[in-house]
Amino acid sequence: MFNIVLHSPEIPGNTGSIGRTCIALNLRLILIKPLGFDLSEKALRRAGLDYWKHVNLSIYENFQEYLEKENPKSIFFFSKTSPKVYFEAPFEKDCHLVFGSETKGLPLEILSKFAPQTYCLPMFSDKVRSLNLSNVATTVAYEALRQINFS
């Protein structure tokens, strides 16, 4: 189907929730180190409930290793700083949806290199700095599914 990629995730509960979404939608979860937690952490297991063992999971030491081994043909990045909105992205089967860490987002060198493929979820209030990573990943995953006609 397609892949959710988390670059340097920091909060185990978010990763656990995203893992559960991946199982529900038959998606693969890719984690790029460093991770802000141990994969055996209680919070990760609690968020993923007893589903975590079913996550189709790949882990890479860094972004370069991920690019070399996955060689994604269609890749999309998400940042609150992008002027383009996520539903404008031309999602397709087997695409990679890349999200940054909860506190730092994606590194500037990645955002600069891949600016044409970077999108945001709009926020209409300046009272919130960011949206929850798990909510954003789930929202984008469903939009990608909608665009490929849930096939």
Give keywords.
151 residues; 6-stranded parallel β-sheet; 5 helices; Alpha/beta knot; 6 strands; single chain
Task: Explain the overall architecture.
The protein is 33% helix and 17% strand. The mean pLDDT is 93. The chain has 151 residues and is α/β, with parallel strands linked by helices. Strand 2 (28-32), helix 2 (42-48) and strand 3 (56-60) form a beta-alpha-beta unit. It has helices at 12-25, 42-48, 63-70, 108-113, 133-147; strands at residues 3-7, 28-32, 56-60, 75-78, 96-99, 118-119. The longest helix is centred in the C-terminal third of the chain and has 15 residues, at 133-147. It has a six-stranded parallel β-sheet. It contains five helices and six strands; from the N terminus they run βαβαβαββαβα.
List the helices and strands and how they pair.
Elements: E1 3-7, H1 12-25, E2 28-32, H2 42-48, E3 56-60, H3 63-70, E4 75-78, E5 96-99, H4 108-113, E6 118-119, H5 133-147
Parallel strand pairs: 1-2, 1-5, 2-3, 4-5, 4-6
Helix pairs in contact: 1-2, 1-5
Arrangement of strands in the largest sheet = 3-2-1-5-4-6
CATH superfamily: SPOUT methyltransferase, trefoil knot domain
Poorly predicted tracts of residues: none
In CATH, the topology is named Alpha/beta knot
Order of helices and strands: EHEHEHEEHEH
Approximate helicity band: 25-40%
Number of domains: 1
